[in-house]
Specification:
Distance between the termini: 36 Å
Number of domains: 1
Number of strands: 7
Number of helices: 9
Mean pLDDT: 96
CATH superfamily: NAD(P)-binding Rossmann-like Domain
Shape: globular
Radius of gyration: 18 Å
CATH architecture: 3-Layer(aba) Sandwich
Strand content: 15-25%
Bound molecules: NADP nicotinamide-adenine-dinucleotide phosphate
Length: 239
């Protein structure tokens, strides 16, 4: 597929999964609108990608409505969006407290970043979303499994999943995917397991091929596990 004129907006693209997705889309010549709070890491990411494709790097916090408006304006300036990946997210406190001990202010912060900010972004880019655009909201197995200590982050991802499911039925003109990427060796994962050796977890780059069927294919809106979508090599049995 020729992606020369396709544009993707990825939040939280300076490291981890967002960065891995930005790299693969840059190789496919997508124009990229990227954000993250840390200005220097984001501009460093842009510097690495801009020899391959056009990149707009807008530092800011997805909780900041003015910043989200600026992302939408960039999308308008580039003639609309084919893909939005709501990837930026927070774990909350590290180590994660049990729910009955969780400071409510921290929980509000988690829900603002992981639930309200993705919806706010979609509200603001709505006029820029082309028919058949894809929306990928990054979720987690913690949205489904009741892991002790994961009540804050896990319930926010559960809310993001239900929000995604309703968006999907309300907007059949788009494909809405909510995706569990699986465990990955990233800063957030290290925060979830402070002091533990996480070197056995796969790098985000190994998971990214599982996103390509959602980006390029025609799968129906729904929940997917990226690991299950990674194309498997074909083996030819010897006679
Ligand atoms: N790692 C795992 O094992 C795992 C498992 C399941 C699901 N996930 C999900 O995968 C996604 C990516 O996580 P990751 O592990 O790649 O995390 P990560 O390595 O910590 O990267 C997070 C990215 O998001 C940016 N970010 C964080 N808060 C932001 C905010 N408020 N506004 C704008 N940008 C923000 C970070 O940059 P700044 O800090 O500079 O803003 C960074 O670029 C998340 O949705 C996460 O919930 C991860």
């Amino acid at each position: 597929m020729n992606n020369v004129y396709k544009t993707a907006l990825i939040t939280g693209a300076s490291r981890g999964l967002g960065w891995a997705l930005a790299k693969i889309l840059a190789r496919e010549k997508w124009r990229l609108i990227l954000d993250a709070r840390g200005k220097y890491a984001l501009l460093g990411a842009r510097l690495l990608l801009k020899t391959t494709t056009r990149v707009a790097a807008l530092p800011g916090d997805v909780q900041d409505e003015t910043h989200v408006e600026a992302l939408a304006q960039q999308a308008a300036a580039w003639g609309g969006l084919d893909l939005v990946i709501n990837n930026a997210s927070t774990l909350g406190l590290s180590p994660q407290p049990a729910l009955l001990d969780y400071p409510l202010e921290s929980l509000q912060q988690i829900f603002r970043t992981n639930v309200l900010a993705p919806l706010s972004l979609l509200q603001k880019v709505r006029p820029q979303l082309k028919d058949n655009a894809r929306i990928i909201n990054i979720s987690s197995d913690a949205a489904r499994e009741a892991y002790a200590g994961w009540g804050g982050y896990g319930s926010s991802k559960a809310a993001l999943e239900q929000l995604s499911a309703i968006l999907a039925v309300e907007n059949p003109q788009w494909k809405v995917y909510w995706v569990d990427p699986g465990d990955m060796r990233t800063q957030m994962h290290q925060e979830a397991y402070p002091g533990e050796d996480i070197s056995d977890r796969p790098l985000p780059e190994t998971v990214v091929p599982g996103f390509l069927p959602l980006i390029h294919g025609d799968l129906p809106s729904g929940r997917y596990r990226a690991l299950e979508l990674i194309p498997q090599p074909l083996f030819h049995e010897e006679a």
